[in-house]
Amino acid sequence: xxxxxxVTRKPAAGxxxxxxxxxxxxxxxxxxxxxxxxxxxxxxxxxxxxxxNRRMGLAVTQSGSGFTWIDNSQLGVxxxxxxxxxxxxxxxxxxxxxxxxxxxxxLAPAPTWPAYDRYQCRHSLGFTTFxxxxxxxxxxxxxxxHPTETVELWKVRLVNQxxxxxxxxxxxxxxxxxxxxxDPRREFHKLFAExxxxxxxxxxxARNHMWDVHSEHYGHWNSDFPYFAGLSCTEPADAAQGDKAxxxxxxxxxxxxxxxxxxxxxxxxxxxxxxxxxLRSPVMLGPGDDRTIGYVLAIETDRAxxxxxxxxxCDLAFIDAALAAVKDDWLQRFAPLHVDTPDETLNHLAxxxxxxxxxxxxxxxxxxxxQQSGAYGFRDQLQDSQVWLPLDPNECRDQIRLHxxxxxxxxxxxxxxxxxxxxxxxxxxxxxxxxxxxxxxNYLRETGxxxxxxxxxxxxxxxxxxxxREHIRRAFEKSFSRTSPRGLPYIGGGDWNDGLSAVGxxxxxxxxxxxxxxxxxxxxxxxxxxxxxxAAQAQEFRQRRDRLIHAVNxxxxxxxxxxxATLDDGxxxxxxxxxxxxxFLNAQTWAVLNDVAPPDRAVRxxxxxxxxxxxxxxxxxxxxxxxxxxxxxxYITRYxxxxxENGGVYTHAACWAVAAAGKMGDAELVGRLLKSLNxxxxxxxxxxxxxxxxxxxxxxxxxxxxxxxxxTWYTGSAAWFxxxxxEWVLGVRAEWDGLRLSPCLPLSWPHASVRRRYRGxxxxxxxxxxxxxxxxxxxxxxxxxxxxxxxxxxxxxxxxQHKVVVRFA
Length: 809
Ligand code: GLC
What we know:
This protein is of the alpha+beta class.
């Protein structure tokens, strides 16, 4: 076992050489890319897996710490967890005790941190396995949830390698939360909890008579937590406990629970305890014996259903079948898209991990180790759902429907809302409502399925369904009504950047980025409307677009780059003469992406991006960071300098820089950005965060921890990174009339290939470049026949197989 990692305060400059990569330090990808194996449990920060099905899930780190939720990872939390990122020792534990020697250890490091002879934590798609060897016992502990049922399953395999008979005791332990997390007021919350023990099923169960939520449906703190949960084991239990003090001992230590070895436990269940579950089973192993044991944590809405789920699932064959189904489901999910580039770790991310992070973490779990959200963000999960477009566009369609149903009849939308309680937040953000049209346009380009626009969906405050096309129309109308006398969109209480929360509260401040965003949407919907036969409306949109482009270029150009916004008092944000926030990334990248910038300005603003914002750890969201709070701007200025949006690399927006570089044909910049954003290419002692998923942010130069990644899992960059790799690096983009093939490969890549499903047919696309090739000019052949340009027409019917070759001219 190695000693704890020392924090490196002064990072080395430059991108770390391949040799120093994570592979050599704390772990590595398995060759198939679907598993990341952690071999040293003392990672610089917790390295988590977010495992979910559509309803429930669990978070688990390399130490074994984590929690379980159902339906809402904030309001429906089953097992208790406290965010302590240093000890990372809170959650579910599986103890093992040797009844002869009295030695106790855990099957994941926390909380006993034993001297394992061997340790691996294998984070995979849909499950995590701890492999440990300790005191002659080899253990494999796999945690996952059933692909469709609301039950968490553990498969535990114990092998006696010691050459002598062993009398062991296996004990599962966690605290019940059964409600809203975090749960800091335990003394209050435990007044409502109830536990019990069913000896026939060896099942400890829990419920809660008070759920501290407020909603129309449930009232204010006046309802039961709507779930029952039960822990059971495939082996008969010889002891069960429901009270924390009785299990640990008063002032006891989770590393050595006082009662673990006692022959008899005096059980404490009912309504007057500090609710936990501790379930102990004896396990006798002869020399060489190999035994498998299962645990289930079943969650249902009533006791009878929960019992039935325990009865059904607490069975080794059931658990094995579920694990096989989980593995197969994730493979099938990602099968329609496969990229192969010279950067192996990027392939692993693009083929599996980015999609997994977006689906399991963002769309289903809506949880990270750093944020238990549970809510849907109107703009967030819509953007995330684009991850489905090349995989299964119907899933994106469902997301569009769900979000449309969270629009108000006046066209505005809930910034976020909680499933279960439907509590939501109405705000003055200016962009939220428009993401519905953004994602729908991308869905239309991908599928050609205009029928979605006729689908009836109600509004939050008007149950009369209206077609999605009408939802989109109302959002545009609402947005148009918020235009300044200069023809620019008002920013209101912020736009994509939440932290610009005070810029336009008086409805005078303007957003240049919103201008760019809206130009793209007007363009898209002019096209869509024309295709729908509404020539007049299409024409109106084109005229609006042209006026807006003019206004942005007239009032938004700062001389070397685009400004970001104007404040209510007219002060410019993102201007060269400012002390802080002189230049903002999004105001440049979206000007390029949406063709707002004329060609010369596009070149100049991207030069400014390279000069001021691009660092070896990625492009900063803005620079310099705000050094002190500015109430006129908003909470972005209240973050410590260099953190998150305040001058860090905000990876969600950084992905758009890759896209803009690709659009400009700047292969050198594409290569640099790709490398800097790939978490598996970082030195983990500088980066700290997981190498297999995207962090939300990376500290900028004003932070003493420049280059430190944070807020992993819960970030919109997962779906976006997958999308920009496919669309702007490999250059395979769905347009209205086919797939555009316009790659911008990093200079060090001689070739790459993509397998992609498109409108039901499968395409294998090989991209080849010669060293002197010019970016942007390609010859394309389809099944051996040259095409007139680089637009691949849609397949004539689904189920076709095609081979495409893209050669740089
Ligand atoms: C957070 C929000 C997201 C916003 C971003 C930038 O990630 O969830 O909606 O766009 O911050 O401020």
